Amino acid sequence: MKKLSKNSIIIIVIVLAAIAILTAVYFIGKNNYKDKFFSGTTINGWDCSGETVEEVKDNLQDEVEQYTLSVIERDGKTEEITGKELGLIYEDNGEVDELFASQDSSLWFMNLGGKEYTVETAFKFDDNDLMKIINKMECFKEENIVEPQDAYIAYQDGAYVVVPEVEGNKLDKDKVFEAIKNAVKESKESINLEEAGAYVQPAKRSTDESITGQIDQLNLMINASLTYDFVDSQWVCNKDVIAGCITDDGTGTLSLNRDLLYQWVSDMAYETDTFGLSHPFKTSYGVEITLEQGGDYGWCIDKDATTDALYQYIAAGQQAVVQPEYLYTAMDRSKYDIGDTYVEVCIEDQTLWCYYEGELITTTPVITGNEAQGFNTPSGSVWAIDGKKADWTFTHFPDSHSDFWMPFNGECGLHDATWRPIETYTKTEFKTNGSHGCVNMPYEPMEKIFEYMEIGYPVVVYYSLDQIAGPGPTQDLIAG
């Protein structure tokens, strides 16, 4: 056998040594990667070279703790919520174990170039922890909250205008919770609360038809102007009055409030009505007296009918001089409502005057109610003529007849009394031989009165200049 040369022996030794070293390295590597990831392995961007499964899972726990969610609010404000604040806990779904299981440690030398993997970083958190964080956010601090405000209609500078809504920045906490919770679950980097619909919205906006549809009608109404002319005074229902009578029904709808309009009409009636009230009166003696309350003469506004008419005028935007609707009317609409057409009786002087349009038509002595028997003719006020009858026979005195009969206070009236001799028309006859309450007079002056006076004209009766209202009747008055 041929001997190996020394060089050959050296080469063989080197080769065997190399094989031994490689074998040792291989087994060391195989042994090393039996519980560790190959060198160059990255998972979710983390370098996991030589890390165990548990170490990788620790990395993933660090990853979820480093998670940050930007919460974008109105006005460019942003708040951040971190995974650490939330107490995010990595939830092992087995993916890391599966990755490691797919690694064959016997082939470790073939994977030295490394591989990149992405696994789902499933995690869990407590809803209560999230709500605690939300409660502490700046956007929920009371001093930072601006309440939303509905658009509404306002009366400004003589016109109705739409005041726009205020968006505010108030958030619906439940919606914020759901939006953030879902964003975290999806590992989003940011969430826009505006886009998530988490803000409390105004219920009414300036563009809503429920608002825009009212403006034209409201401005039509307040530009109405109704003038009630009472000769010596005026009441004007203008835009400020009308605006004060336009109210909100509680739903944001503005409308003309009839009750408030009725109150305005009532105030006008209170100031201008004269029916049954005291009346200033200038007597034929040239002395002015005040007739006391009572009687049935004067102006009395029909408040309901006047309110209804005024309501329609305003709704139509009318501008006009108008008249109230009346229950009772008088001869003159001024403060001196008796006017210049009337009958005047002074009981003390047993005298009657009749004026028509300021001209004295007739004056005559009269006989009034019998004072001794308690048939005193009512005095101290003004009454309206209630009727006008010719050729009249009195019910209680069928033998008594008058050609002219004009009652003004129940059974008390003006009439001719031809059965009384002219010489009996004295200033004292009435005390013991007067009528049953009526104002008796001779034929000719009563004929004149009947010719000029009409139903509704005033009859002024006063006892004397010093005693405006005399003794009242103690008996029921009887026509005749």
Q: How is this structure best described in words?
A:
This protein is an alpha+beta fold and 480 residues long. The protein is 28% helix and 24% strand. It is built from twelve helices and 28 strands. A five-stranded mixed sheet has the order 22-21-20-28-23, with helices on one face. Strands 24-25-26-27 form a four-stranded mixed sheet, with helices on one face. The chain has a three-stranded mixed sheet with strand order 2-1-6, with no helix packed on it. A hairpin with a 5-residue loop joins strand 3 and strand 4 (78-82). Helix 5 packs across helix 6 and helix 9 packs across helix 10 (303-315). The protein is rod-shaped and about 200 Å long. 29% of the residues are buried.
Radius of gyration from the CA trace? 54 Å
DSSP E strands, number: 28
Mean pLDDT: 89
> How far apart lie the N and C ends?
186 Å
Q: What structural class do helix, strand and pairing data support? A: alpha+beta
Q: Note the total helix count.
A: 12
Low-pLDDT windows of residues: none
Identify the quaternary structure here: single chain
> What is the approximate shape?
rod-shaped
Helix content: 25-40%
Sheet with the most strands: spatial strand order: 22-21-20-28-23
**What can be said about the biggest beta sheet?**
5 strands, mixed
Q: Proportion of β residues?
A: 15-25%
